[in-house]
């Protein structure tokens, strides 16, 4: 993280939650809490991490990017 009051310190998390809300939550009919928890889990683990292509990763999925990237000498 960066310094206090830096506008970029939470940009990644803010971007993810904006996508989560627009793609999954807004427009979804009212459902019980347990069902919404399952929907969010499936969105993150199945769609966002495994199928959704990310422009920051050269339009690869997270799994494709991790297979191609070697993480040697990472602290």
UniProtKB/TrEMBL annotation:
InterPro entries: Integrase_cat-core (IPR001584), RNaseH-like_sf (IPR012337), Transposase_IS3/IS150/IS904 (IPR050900). Pfam families: rve_2. SUPFAM superfamilies: Ribonuclease H-like. It comes from the Bacteria. One of its GO terms (biological process) is DNA integration. Residues 14-54 form the Integrase catalytic domain. PANTHER family: TRANSPOSASE INSF FOR INSERTION SEQUENCE IS3B-RELATED (PTHR46889), TRANSPOSASE INSO FOR INSERTION SEQUENCE ELEMENT IS911B-RELATED (PTHR46889:SF4). This is IS3 family transposase. It comes from Flavobacterium hydrocarbonoxydans.
